[in-house]
Amino acid sequence: MPCGTQNAPQPRAAPLMYLAVVTGANKGIGFVIVRELCKAKFTGDVILTARNEKLGNEAVKMLKSEGFEVAYHRLDLCDQGSAKQLSNFLQKTYGGLDVLINNAGMSFKSSIFTLSTRGFDQPFAYWLRVRMSLQTT
Known about the structure:
One of its GO terms (molecular function) is carbonyl reductase (NADPH) activity. The protein is 43% helix and 15% strand. By secondary structure, it is of the alpha/beta class. It has a single domain (18-135), classed as Rossmann fold. It has a four-stranded parallel β-sheet, sandwiched between helices.
């Protein structure tokens, strides 16, 4: 169902319906992107992703209170299993993905200048795997 409607997301019945996934969308720019897709009456379903299930569901609840229908799916870019679960869900439920807005970011617990090369590279390697996994659905 189109994002601007009150109906729960359903698998696409017609090729004129699309699917958009916005990563890192429980707050900030990602949240606004989801809201704007809905305001623009995106022709299809919008899935908001976040690594924290509680925050992701709270964001969906807030958007629903504004009259938008958005679904949540957990996605943690540093967890390959999480990315694979999302990829499998998208393939099984929607037959793939039409629009990916990759907004998810990573924060480092210490100064970026004190990280080892591995500590710096590992999150980006996972991000690339996630991107490839989602592109191949």
